[in-house]
Amino acid sequence: MSCPDCFKGSVHGHAKSTGTEETLHGVLTYIAGSASTQNASKSTIIFITDAFGFNLVNSKLLADYYAEKTGFRVVVPDIIPGGGVPLSTLKLMEAVTSPVSWWNISGHIWRVVSLIRMLTVVIPFGLRTRGVFPKVLAYARGIKAELPAGGKLGAAGFCWGGLQSTKLSQEPAVEGGSFSLIDAHFTAHPAGLKESGDFVEGVRKFNVPFSMAIGDQDFVLSKDAVANIEANLRKEFAGNHEQHYEVRIYPNCGHGFAVRADPNKTVENEAAGKAADQAIDWFKRFLG
């Protein structure tokens, strides 16, 4: 499903999340923002995390920002079976991918040990999440069904969550129905998807507005793959729904930047802020 960058990045410990947790449709859920934000909006955004799930506070902080800036309810389900990968994975992957001098025997030994430990995390994660989508779909349909009259549903997916949110955009609100489940979709550096087919299909089936943020150094989707996605979207929808999709490429950014950017890396950190605002503008446009 992934590349090494799916398990690298920084923990954002500079702030505390402001939301609350409760069980919605059988799933522990973080409801972002303050109580006034949570109860004020008809529309809801489902925020589907990367592989770290609730273990990484970054996702909750970003969801809080979405709630504050859009005025919509933002829910973050703890949907990963067995929970997200542990934060210790960040250091392990850093050890695996950092250069080691040829003469540094202890460094090479530690790299091998770290790789073995990484495999004991990554392989089980891939296995236990292989059949998770029906649970994600049931949750999203439950959230959709409880929206008040006039309410709309958005989905935001990151890395592993981008696969889930893209698949949600292809689904009807009810089994066998003809109305879309998702009213607007944003994804940042998605993982586990086909080069272009899945992205186009999500828009084609229900004309779901689609926005993607991607770095030009992403190892999951190369520059050529992103160009192919954008070209196919333009070809498929030119003159019809051309304003309903966008692909923004962020220079000098790799996979995971929108959630796990290093605050000390100015370019990456600024790009994360721009990607957040991209999502906020998209949801305000189509869910308001």
From TrEMBL:
Signal peptide: none annotated. Residues 149-286 form the Dienelactone hydrolase domain. SUPFAM superfamilies: alpha/beta-Hydrolases. Pfam families: DLH. InterPro entries: AB_hydrolase_fold, Dienelactn_hydro. Gene3D superfamilies: alpha/beta hydrolase (3.40.50.1820). One of its GO terms (molecular function) is hydrolase activity. This is Dienelactone hydrolase domain-containing protein. It comes from Phialocephala subalpina. The lineage of its organism: Eukaryota, Fungi, Dikarya, Ascomycota, Pezizomycotina.
